[in-house]
Amino acid sequence: MAGTKTYYVTTAIDYVNNLPHIGTAYEKICADVIARFKRLEGEPVFFLMGNDEHSINVKREAQARGLDPHVYCDQMADQFRQIWKQLGISYDAFIRTTEERHAKAVAELFRRIHENGDIYPSKYAGLYCESCETFYRDKDLVDGNCPQHGTPPKWIEEDNYFFALSRYTEEIERIIEDKRLLILPEIRKNEILNILHGGLEDVSISRSSFDWGIPLPIQPDHVMYVWFDALINYISAIGFGWDEGLFSQFWPADMHIIGKDITRFHCIIWPAMLLSAGLEVPRMVFGHGFVFLKGEKMSKTLGNVVTPMDIVEVYGPDALRYYLLRDCSFGKDGNFTWENFLERYNGDLANDFGNLLQRVLTMIRRYRSGTIPSPRGLEAEDEELKKGCLSLYEDVRGFLDPMGGDIDFHLALARIWEAIRHTNQYIDHTAPWTLQKEGKEERLDTVLACAAESLRIIGTVLSPFLPEAARGLFEQLGLHERPTRLTREAALIWEHIPPGTTVKKPIPLFPRIVAEEERPETSEKSQKKGHAKQDDEVTIHEFDRFDLRAGRILEAERVPNTEKLLKLTVDIGETRTIVASIGKAFSPEALRDQAVVVIANLKPVRIRGILSEGMILAAGADEALSLVTLSGKVDPGEKVR
Ligand code: ZN
């Protein structure tokens, strides 16, 4: 009986001479989405990440800090794992190339390749960039410098062992053209085919000038070339050379996700090594684009957020995950700018998504005491919402399916946001607040139920992308302890919320970010006077500066061409005109004679051409607003304090 093959996804392993930056994070986030989505599909998944420790630069960095390289690598591994944890990266295993199991796998693979007659000694002389750990030919250099680093390569001459890569030129070409090895995006595949058409040279796989690395089994005073060693991590982590049963369950890899600069290693050298050893080649290599920090490198407007990685700390992992996945196209290069980040965060996350959850929960709490009602017969607009939601999963799946020729995280998220905006519009159109006022209870049940179902499906499909936000959504909907698990099946059925499910009090998942420059006058003045920085506290004297008064609404009318603006004439001991955004919750008729509390000395502003002199106090979301009022009989103009 054949067992189910595990879906095996990997990322590049990282050099540990630097901590992860936004580009490294991007790769891991993308791989994490694939892994999580496959799990949602119900497939067994194995997601591998790790560190590449046998680089001469790693040893140098350790020496510069006065540390034994192993100690340094241990410390870095802890820090890397901590960062991946913070980002919500759900890897199943973490391989380090200094581990014993890795050494075993390397020895076994080398033995097989050697036995196959593909390893031979020769003299190597050539130009070598130590930062890349790569040899360059004259024609690859830019003004005599390394094309990646812009530094002059070193002339190296030594006795090396070589791998007979050139023997595999035609076979690799064939497996790429047959799509036994799928290379995405197309542009990377064409680059690789071009290299193959130009013919391959054998590659040096050992070094005798230093000792940081895995000793060559046939010549222990040589160490293995770091790239030859590193590529083997993809099989050393899953049992090759130490547990053949385990290995056969995972290999070949379904997807290697790597940066576009290292496709040559993954699409030519790696398959050749595997073919020589009689192993299967990976099924797919995806060479993603880079994320560049454009414009200002550090945020000037977000206070304690200095670099993009700080976003995770301050605004949570999903803020960064969303931005990178939505704003960059996976196969192409992307740019990080603070302006775009703020726009995406406030517009898509805080506004579209956060508000939707908030308004649905608020209405269910207000109109149905927090219990999600059952629908009572669907009308056309309900059916339309249902249809859009039920096709969401398959649409998103299509964008993530490499067999479609690409993987498009940004389009998948755009599709999910289409569902979010559709649900927001659905609520605007069905206007539950009006249904409630008009006593249309059955219709109100249906609308609230449909909105909740829509949120549940959105949360399910969103979970591989923004796992923490999805968890928050499920918790607030009261579904986290229910058998409504995050599965593909659950995303494909409507009316899946168990009767009697009770929602929680809404907590904003993405509180709006107010950039420093937009913030209303902060405590700058008081700081200058030497006060401690206590932004949230006010003195009684400061409070006294607010002229709060009891008022009575005399007249109310809608401001033309607006959704929620009302022009009010209010008696506060004198007559004032106030423009208030309370028109979603109240009709002008309902407000006449209403007692209110007014801030009378608010700086007047002109709104839609009307001078507004004051503000009405209210609480709650747009359509479920509550006016602040006074319990007893108070004359207009009385001071409130
Ligand atoms: Zn270089």
Descriptive account of the structure:
The chain has 641 residues and is an alpha/beta fold. Among the domains are: 312-491, Isoleucyl-tRNA Synthetase, Domain 1 (Orthogonal Bundle); 529-627, OB fold (Dihydrolipoamide Acetyltransferase, E2P). The protein contains 23 helices and 25 strands. Helix 5 (169-177) runs antiparallel to helix 6, helix 13 (338-368) packs parallel to helix 16 and helix 14 (380-390) runs antiparallel to helix 16 (409-430). Bound molecules: zinc ion. Zinc ion (ZN) is lined by residues 129, 131-132, 146, 148-149.
Task: Give a count of the beta strands, DSSP E runs of length 2 or more.
Answer: 25
* Percent of residues in helices: 40-55%
Structural class: alpha/beta
CATH architecture of the domain at 312-491: Orthogonal Bundle
**Poorly predicted tracts of residues:** 521-534
The multimeric state of the shown protein is: single chain
Which fold name fills CATH's third level, the topology of the domain at 312-491? Isoleucyl-tRNA Synthetase, Domain 1
Present as ligands are: zinc ion
Q: CATH homologous superfamily of the domain at 312-491?
A: Isoleucyl-tRNA Synthetase, Domain 1
Into which percentage range does the β-strand content fall? 15-25%
How far apart the termini lie comes to 78 Å
Apparent shape? elongated
Alpha plus pi helix count = 23
Which CATH class of the domain at 312-491?
Mainly Alpha
The main pleated sheet reads as:
7 strands, parallel
Mean pLDDT: 90
Q: Kindly provide the radius of gyration, computed on alpha-carbon positions and rounded to a whole number of angstroms.
A: 31 Å
